[in-house]
Structure prediction request, 339 residues.
Amino acid sequence: MTVLVTGGAGFIGSNFIFYMLKAHPDYRIVCYDALTYAGNLSTLSSVLDNPRFRFVKGDICDREAVYKLFEEEKFDYVVHFAAESHVDRSIEDPGIFVKTNVLGTQVLLDAAVKYGVKRFHHVSTDEVYGDLPLDRPDMFFVETLPLKASSPYSASKASSDLLVMAYCRTFGLDATLSRCSNNYGPYQFPEKMIPLMIANATADKPLPVYGEGINVRDWLYVEDHCKAIDLILHNGRPGEVYNIGGHNEMRNIDIVKLILKELGKPESLITFVKDRKGHDMRYAIDPTKIHNEIGWLPETKFADGIKETIRWYLNNRDWWEEIVNGEYKNYYQKMYGNR
Ligand code: NAD
Ligand code: TDX
Prediction:
């Protein structure tokens, strides 16, 4: 089997490639990634020489390049991660989110229909459901909820979800779709909350908590997400949406305090800053469907996963220090300088 993984030089895509090469010793993986600010070829250095792996640099919006690759490789499966993924950046510049996440997805869907694949799996997010109130702990995201995006990022992901479903119905494409909660783990770009807080705390820099820090996210260790996608790819029903999450809701402020405790740093580093525009209050996944239909359950407890993640960032400083000392400095100044 030959699997196309788009966006495999990013956080979840790279973890998925490592997972698949191990889990399926007879599969070939082709990673197609534009290496935007969020993509990093050094992340894939351990597999670049693997004869079952090929890296191709390219943009999913480049129809000619995408068609050429499909023609060459005759993919069995497509797992589509490539996206602009940071909510704060989508508030600054929505255009690139619509281009990559909507139009780029359409190019891939056209290629999958034209050249034929056994299955197209689209990696989406729980943010397409909007948010839940803090005072209704009985409410969860289920697959049947209407889409109700809050940010340009989530609106672009919701649009791509609708396109995937439309290609299933209209063109008979065999596609599956998953909506996962917040991931954490190795190789997450330091603009995201957990690695940002780890990086700042190790450098004794202020930890910028938006608003009052009471927003709730439902955290899942990245490897558990990868395993769920592998299971859906092989055992999911065509045309179905699967939520992925492990009932691990936490307030941002509690995670920040936990990181400081683990690193032996003082809580005085916490700095409350201006809230994110349109900030979603609470995400909480109901994973009953994937559990009942496919037998998936998360394996990593948050208490273990966060320790492992912090250890990874401490042991792999070269990886993220190169990022935070580069172009990222301008981003940080722009987003947090006068916040
Ligand atoms: P990321 O930003 O770390 O990685 C995105 C990757 O896509 C990068 O390697 C980048 O170079 C590549 N890319 C961007 N634009 C491209 C283009 N036009 N053509 C080709 N490649 C391009 O993102 P991530 O956190 O790994 O998220 C991966 C996917 O999972 C996204 O679709 C995201 O919406 C979804 N998701 C993420 C989370 C999370 O918590 N991070 C949760 C649920 C779903
Ligand atoms: O500096 C910060 N301070 C802060 O308080 C940052 C970067 C974030 N936050 C808050 C905002 C959120 O409530 O932390 C929470 C998590 O923020 P992010 O890491 O930016 O994630 P989120 O906005 O929840 O979106 C993530 O989960 C769903 C991913 O980035 C998306 O790609 C995914 O789809």
Remarks:
- The longest strand covers residues 119-125.
- The two ends are 49 Å apart (CA to CA).
- The domain at 2-184+219-246+280-300 is CATH 3.40.50.720 (Rossmann fold).
